[in-house]
Every structure is written in C-alpha cells, then in structure tokens.
Amino acid sequence: MYKAPVEEIAFTLKHVAGMADALDRGLFGELGDDLVDAILAEAGRFASDEVAPLAEIGDRQGARLENGEVRLPDGWKELYRNWAAGGWNALTANEEFGGQALPHMLNVAALEMWNSGSMAFALAPTLTMGAVEALSAHGSPALKDKYLARMVSGEWTGTMNLTEPHAGSDLGAMKTRAERHDDGSYRIFGQKIFITWGEHQATDNIIHLVLARLPDAPAGTRGISLFLVPKYLVNDDGSLGARNDLFCHSLEHKLGIHGSPTCTMIYGDGRHGEEEGAVGWLVGEENKGLACMFTMMNNARLAVGMQGVAICEAATQKAVAFAKERTQGKAPGWTGAGMSPIIEHPDVARTLVTMKALTQGARAICFACAHAIDLSHRSAGEGSRHWQERAALLTPIAKSFATDAGVDVASLGIQVHGGMGFIEETGAARYLRDARIAPIYEGTNGIQAIDLVTRKLPLSGGDQVRGFIAELQGIVAEVRESNAEGFGTSAARLAAAIADLSVATEWLLAAQGEGRVHEALAGATPYQRLFGLVLTGSYLAKGALATTGDGAEQNRIALCRFAAENLLSETAALKDRVVNGAASLAAARAILA
Amino acid sequence: MYKAPVEEIAFTLKHVAGMADALDRGLFGELGDDLVDAILAEAGRFASDEVAPLAEIGDRQGARLENGEVRLPDGWKELYRNWAAGGWNALTANEEFGGQALPHMLNVAALEMWNSGSMAFALAPTLTMGAVEALSAHGSPALKDKYLARMVSGEWTGTMNLTEPHAGSDLGAMKTRAERHDDGSYRIFGQKIFITWGEHQATDNIIHLVLARLPDAPAGTRGISLFLVPKYLVNDDGSLGARNDLFCHSLEHKLGIHGSPTCTMIYGDGRHGEEEGAVGWLVGEENKGLACMFTMMNNARLAVGMQGVAICEAATQKAVAFAKERTQGKAPGWTGAGMSPIIEHPDVARTLVTMKALTQGARAICFACAHAIDLSHRSAGEGSRHWQERAALLTPIAKSFATDAGVDVASLGIQVHGGMGFIEETGAARYLRDARIAPIYEGTNGIQAIDLVTRKLPLSGGDQVRGFIAELQGIVAEVRESNAEGFGTSAARLAAAIADLSVATEWLLAAQGEGRVHEALAGATPYQRLFGLVLTGSYLAKGALATTGDGAEQNRIALCRFAAENLLSETAALKDRVVNGAASLAAARAILA
C-alpha cells in the first residue's frame, strides 16, 4: 500500500526546486519550514490513509450513470467531503474568498500525494482548482462574490468544458453557441465531451466553465467566449434555485481513471430548467475566452504532470516492495538459502533504480516549474517576467516528461511483477491504465513539444533557455568541485548531455529563424525528451550536492551517478534526431500514403 | 478494421527471412511460391474476415466461469471450430498424424495474422501447437496413437501446465506431485495457475500437459516430470470415457486477452473422476520433464514474439487510418481548406513511421528466427547445428524485441488517437492491454536477456554470434554498393550500429570469461535491445535491397533510412550501458534497501 514519501518531497521542494531560498527571502510571507513540513505530513497522511484505501474500489466499480445521475464509487462522496472539510481545496486561493494563499509548490506537492492515492479521485479537486483560478482572474466582482467562496472551500466543484467531438486540440472548430439575453446573462446550447467530474452527487452544486461561440463571433479561436454555467442557479441570498438546462448524457467507458466520471454534457436541449437554454454568465470579455483559459493553462498542465509523478512514485513503491518479497531463481553471488528475492537479480535492480531516477527527476522538474510560477507571482518587474518565462519554458517539459515517465514507470512496474502484474487484483496494471491518459489530455505531449519549440524557446530571443542552460552548467561545475568519489563520471556525462541540449536548442532556434518550421517540428518530441533527461540528471546532481554527511547523501549521489552513466547516454541520440532526423522523416512520409 | 498485410508478409518471408532461397533449393519439398501465396492469402482472409470481427466482443464479454464450466465469448466456439475445420492447426505437424509438414515460417506468418485478429483467440491454437510438438517429440507410440491425430486436427486442444504460485520463472520450486500407479499410469495432485485455455467448451476434450514431481525425485529442476492428463479419459476405441479428476477452479481477472480463459487448475482433489488423483501418463522419461519442455521452448517463445508483431501491425493500421481521417489544426505547409488531417503534423508522422519501422523490424527478426528453426530441421550435420544455434541465438531477441515493440507501438497508437485512444470503444486501448502480457509470459524479457547473454552468446565459443554480425556487415556493404541515393547515410549509420553491437558482444563474452557474470547480467537488457535494433536496421536494408524499380522500392529505402537515421542512433547509448553501466548500477543498489 502506498505510503506518502513526505520527507523526499520536502527535500526536493526545499533543496532542489528552490523553496528553502524563497522561504529564507520571505517570499512566502510568514510561511516557515515547520508549517511546510506539517502541511506535507498531513496531506500525506490523508493520501495514504484516506484516499489510497478507496482507489481499488473506485477502479472496480467506476462511476455509473443511473437515471441521469452519476453514482460515485462506494465511499467516494464521503471521501470528497472529508477532503474538502480538511481545507485542502483552499491552499493556494486568494484569502479574500477563504483561500490560504500558500505557494503553488506546496499545492502541487500535495496533489502528487493525493494522485498517488487515487488519480481518479484527485481529478475532482484538480478541475475545481482550475475553475477557481480562471474565475479569480477573469470573473466579474458579482460572479466572484456569488460563487468563489464555495468553490474555494470545495463545497461546490468546478469543471472545464472545452472539448467537442470535432474540436479537441483545435478549439477553433468549436460549435457550442451562446446567445445574449436581455438581463445580461446568456443562454448556452451545445454538446461538450470528455468533461471530467461533469456530474456527481458529492456536492450540492457544480459550477461549469463552458467555452462557446456568440452568434456574431469571428471564426476560429478569436471568436470563443467563456461562460459560467451552474448546475443549479444560485439565488441572490446564496440559496440554490432552479435546475439549469444542462445534464450528463453519458459516461465514457475508459481504459483507466474509472472512478472519475468523464461526462458528455448537453447544454440547452430543454430537458431541464425553466426557460430555453442553459443560463450562463460571461467570464472575462466576449470573444476572449481562450485567453481566460490560457491563464490557467500552466497550472493545469503542471497538475497533469503531477499525475505522472504520482503514478511513478506509487508504481515504484509497489514494485520495490514486491521485488523484495518475491523469490525466484538464484541471482549471481546470492549466498542465502533457497531462491533469492528478485531484487537481487541485476536486471530487476536496473529496472527499479531506473524507476527511482525517473520518479525523482520528474518530481524535481515539476516542483521547479511550480517554484517558477510562485516566483512569477511574488516577484516584481523584471524578476516577475523572468520567472514567468521560466515557468512557461518548464511547463511543457514538466507535463510531457512526467506523464511519459508515468506510463513508462507503470509499465516497468508491471514487468517487475511478472505474471502477477497482469492480474488486475495485484493493482500494478491500474497504474498503467490510469497513467495512460496523462500524456494525452491538457494538450497531448506532441502539442507540448510544439509549444516548447515554437513558443517557449524563442522567449527573450532565446535568452531564457540559454540562461537556464547556463544554470545547469553551473551545477556541473559544482559536481566537479565537490570531488566526491561516488559521483563517478557524472560531471563529464552531465556536461556532455547539457552540450547536446545546447546544440539542439541553437539548431531549433536557427531553423525557425530561417523559416524551416517543418524541420523544427519534426524534432520537437525528441528535443522535449532531451530537455527532460538533462533536467533529470541536473536536478539529481543538485539534490546530491545539497545533502551532506550521511547515508542519504550516498544514496543521492549514487542515484545521480546511475542517471548520468545509464540514462543520459540517450541524449546524444536525441540531439541527433533533432539535428539530423528531419530529412529522413520527410522522405519516409510517402510510406504513409 | 484490421486487414491482413498478406503481400508484406510474403515479401518479408521470401526476401528478407530467406524463404525464397530455401524454396529454390527445394528444402521445403514440393512447396512452391504459388502455394505459399495461396496459404497466406487464405490465412489472412480468415484473420481479417472471421477472427477480427469477434475480437471486440471477446474483450468485452471475456471468458466466464459458470457452474465450473468456462463460457467463451459469443461466437468463439464456432469460430474455433471453423478455424480447426480449415485445417489450420495442422500446418506444421508431422504427416503421420495428419499434419501438412509445412515450414514453421508459414505457420508463424499465419499466427501473426490470427493474433492481429484477436490475440486472445489465437492463444488457443498456440498452446495446442506447443502440446503437439512436445508430444510428437517425447510421447510414447501408444500415447501418440491415442491423442496426436485429434490434437493435430484441432478436434482437441492442448495446454501447458507449468506455473504454480511460488514457481513461475523458477520451475524448480514446483510442488505438484505425481504418484506411480500399478498399471503404468500416474496420479497427479496439485494446483497450477495461469493455465491458458485450461478449460472451455469449444472442443470435446482438452489434453493437459502437466509438470509434476515424483515422490523420489531429486530436488530442483532435475526432479520434474511431464505428464499427459486429459480432461476426459479416452477409451481404447477412441471414444471418451470418464471425466478425469481435474477442474478449473477459477479464472483470472486480467488487464487484457479477456477472451482467453486463464485458469487455475486443480488436479486430484477428488471432485471429479472415479478414483483418487488425476490420471496421467508420463511423456518422455521420469525427471526429464524440463528437457521435454525445452524442446518446444524456441517455438513457443517465437509464437509469443509473433503476438508482439501482430499487435504492432494491427495498432499501426488503426493509427494510420485514424490519422488520415481526423482533422485538427493546420500543419506547417498545409494549403488545403480547413484543418489538416493530423497525419500532416510532423510529430504524428514521426510517430507513425516509427511504428511502421518497429513493426517491420520485429516481423523480419521473427521470420528470420522461424527460418533458422526450419533449416535446423531440414539441414544435415554441420548445417543443422549451425541453424540450431542461429535459432537459439535469435529466439530471445525475437521474443523480447517484438513483444516490447508490441507494447510500445500499441501505446503510441493510443497517443495518435488523442482522447479517443483512452475510450475503450475505439479499440486502440485493447491492443495495449492485450500486448502487455507478451513481455512477461514464456519467460520474461529479462529472462530472455539472461538467456541471450549467458547461453546464446557463448555458442561455438562466440563464433555463432560473430558469424552473424559478419553477415550483417555484408548487408552494409551491399547498401554501400547499391549507391541508391535514397539510402542517405544509412550505410554509415548501420555500420556504426553493428560496430556497437560487436563491441558490446565482445565485452559480454570477455566479462563472462573472466567470471564477471554479475556485470554481464547488469547489461543484458540493454544488449538485447541493441541487438534487436541492429537487426531491425539490417533487415529493413535487406528488404530495400531486394526490391527493384518501383514505388515499393522507394518506400522500403525510405523506411530503412528513417530507421537508420532516427532509430539506430540509440545503439551507442545501449552499448555504453553494457560496457560502462554496471558499476553505477552496483553503487545504486543500496538505494533499494
């Protein structure tokens, strides 16, 4: 059973991702080390003791649609309410509406643990937090007053309604329409698919944020507006009014995250409500809906990245525990009686250490991204702009590297379990089933790569990424200076990997500068992985350097060395694909005809 | 819907894997080109038109245990009977018992197509063929006379009973026991798990081959005997007699291959049968049961490799079709109206071409392995020994590379489908769920790697693998000589990859020679993948060289170039892991404590 790795998380937050420094500088107000530890410990306890025990039943029963209502798995309604009652939904929200205004770093750390407990469950708060963020940034004072406090507290959940059957990654193709109403409200008509936690009975109301198109809107993405559409209308005294004209038409039958209801939502077909159309209110300005969504995009993508980290951690814990218990054969050098635990077999050990390294790397990247988001909010002027860029640069890497790692590590975890891994009751397979959506939603990892190469590399004329690479080179210098024997050839390996990253970066910037966008995009995914691997090595080194004088230090150094000497060797191939791969891909394109 | 790639398969068999030469030399008797094509076409038709349409219902309904009997998915009983009536079970078996004595190459090609149609369904014949093979090689004349003809025809299916809860990869830990009976028969008592198609109603009888231990057997793997244990006893006139004392206790709830009943079998608990214990007959000699199993190991492992190829092909077909239909966004350079098909996006094209290359590579490796098996049976003296070694060397690579590719390609296929890939009705997720068992059963891919490094590399003092590598270098020379422009840098890339393979091979041979087995095993999995990648590149080149003067030639050259310039770059990292990776793995071992 999953046990939240509270100490490891705290260490990574503080000493790898930059929280210790931010605390020292008072950027997080009165927040101190002790409170951070206490919050993490309690979030971890809730994840381990409350969430994780209900994950399996959630997977097995799934969310079910019965008479138009979604029935959650046994115990989940109470679980959600206990979670909200713990104040967890309010960690980062503004104090004005009951939030605790704590750093995002703390929130993503807690999200990791809840997702390790049950990714399907943690999706509910993840979506609500996104809706809170969009509403906080763009809602009118009246809308905020009416809705925000109860969303911040978690009394009501929120959803994001973007996708339609023919408008997934390309929201410009959207057809859901909105009509202006005399009283300043709007009426929404249309169908939305893949709406996470779109309907359920855990809360009295559900606040839908819906993208739709006004009759006179420009075509494409510049003609999309964002609306708040509650399941139940809310009277001015805060009491619930009539049922709004919207409902959950069906639930998807999915590979994983069974406990999370993935709804097809119908707005304005007249089945519910007192008048025609689903009543909604504009959030932000007309036709500026996409900009409102983009506000929360970094956080949402990072939250999905945390799902990847969460699965990595849980799958690794499970595989390590199994490999210690399960005995088969005799490993070379095994002198014990009978068969050896399979963890003694070098190939199994390689698998498990690889899982550990990917987990730690993905976690550090995501926490560094959260740190950048925090500092962008808590710095002034140039500093804010710098950290905004850093967050923007890190977001696609955090999302893609962590979610790819989630799938890979979950799959390795099944492999470690042998035949038992294929049996659902073992639980290892669920991690793979759950993990598999994360590289897809909130922008597929291929789209993250396009975003990274075409929008993020050019930030500040390329100087944001160059500055970041220079920082990584600084870590290499520290490894060299440390002279700690355990690092082996880490410094040289890491330096070579960073050089690969630098070459690939300059090549991509030049290609785009010269209008060879097609060639740059051909290498976008290898580049994105290259960046993630380099960061994994760099952050493992940073963690090793930050530890002193005990077994933990030796372990961190050893993990860094393993990553440097066994995983980073891939960077040369990835760089080569970026720099030399486009021509053969273009030539091979005809094969697909 | 899956359409069997009959032409591609025929081409690969004949011109890449060596069948054309073998036909020319008359090694396959009167078998000619036309008959090969006709058999492949009909096997493909059956796979596409009969098997594939029942795959989805098989997955959804699964096999169910009802009142001690296994109920197959709707239509599967008839499907099996039609399949057997087509004579498909008898392709390779001896003519003495009704077999057609056709090459294994033809059988694995057909297996690929049936597995593409439904891997869960194709498991039934796969297991029966294994049982036929073991019985043919080791059964007494009396046993063969009584059972073989009806197993060859497929009138009865066969099973292999190896695994027990604490004896999976390590069969020495087995506890099922056998007692000698006065009449020369035996009585079997024990529990076996993970028995594929262990119980069903598609045939009147099921012939179980069961490993068990005699009371006076030596400990470990040298004390295991093989028994034939029929579900119904067979009278001397061939009619069915009493029910034997064995039954299916339960079915596993698995990640995939739902239509295939995975049974826990109980032998000799007295619930059925007229006397105590399940009645069985010895196959081969007492305590030599494992040797009997090893006889069929190469074929069984190759058959699992074909499952990997089959999933690759089916998942790729599905993804390519989707990517041509689905429109989203505008790819760079897209000049059509509206959104472009996603296949136009470079990242999607890269994914699809990668899937194609892995599929073709895995197929060619498996067919080459089947060719080696065929020639080992159909050559004399030194030739037979050579091909036996070649088959032995290729088997772990074929099994592991193809099954890893199956998982990777199925996962990429989901990714191409975006959100729809996560929805079960789409069908892309089933491929991943089915594929995930193949790297595990018939010896995990980690065990294949141990086998490759410790048993196969040392064959003929290392000269078998060295000779093979020299052959691959010959392909490079041909690419160089061909001077075809489309190859790009293929020759140089391939030469470098083969050099990596050669260095890693010599290092592993030396390490073992010097007693550093632990270090050799630490690199076994990277080495195995390195070998598979080099073979992929080499066989794609061989196929390209064998085609002349049309669009197909250009396509083959382009795919070879893509593999050479985009996939083979990984070999340097893999070699490095073999040669330099062990020390850091050993140092990191403490992390797992």
Automatic annotation (TrEMBL), chains A, B:
Keywords: FAD, Flavoprotein, Oxidoreductase. Residues 287-452 form the Acyl-CoA dehydrogenase/oxidase C-terminal domain. It is an enzyme of class 1 (oxidoreductase). Residues 38-155 form the Acyl-CoA dehydrogenase/oxidase N-terminal domain. InterPro entries: Acyl-CoA_dh-like_C_dom, Acyl-CoA_DH_CS, Acyl-CoA_Oxase/DH_mid-dom, Acyl-CoA_Oxase/DH_mid-dom_sf, AcylCo_DH-like_C, AcylCo_DH/oxidase_C, AcylCoA_DH/ox_N, AcylCoA_DH/ox_N_sf. GO terms for molecular function: acyl-CoA dehydrogenase activity; flavin adenine dinucleotide binding. Its cofactor is FAD. Gene3D superfamilies: Acyl-CoA dehydrogenase/oxidase, N-terminal domain, Butyryl-CoA Dehydrogenase, subunit A, domain 2, Butyryl-CoA Dehydrogenase, subunit A, domain 3. Residues 468-587 form the Acetyl-CoA dehydrogenase-like C-terminal domain. SUPFAM superfamilies: Acyl-CoA dehydrogenase C-terminal domain-like (SSF47203), Acyl-CoA dehydrogenase NM domain-like (SSF56645). It catalyses: 3-(methylsulfanyl)propanoyl-CoA + oxidized [electron-transfer flavoprotein] + H(+) = 3-(methylsulfanyl)acryloyl-CoA + reduced [electron-transfer flavoprotein]. Its EC number is 1.3.99.41. Residues 160-266 form the Acyl-CoA oxidase/dehydrogenase middle domain. PANTHER family: ACYL-COA DEHYDROGENASE, BROAD-SPECIFICITY LINEAR ACYL-COA DEHYDROGENASE FADE5. Belongs to the acyl-CoA dehydrogenase family. Involved in the assimilation of dimethylsulphoniopropionate (DMSP), an important compound in the fixation of carbon in marine phytoplankton, by mediating the conversion of 3-(methylthio)propanoyl-CoA (MMPA-CoA) to 3-(methylthio)acryloyl-CoA (MTA-CoA). This is 3-methylmercaptopropionyl-CoA dehydrogenase. It comes from Ferirhizobium litorale. The lineage of its organism: Bacteria, Pseudomonadati, Pseudomonadota, Alphaproteobacteria, Hyphomicrobiales.
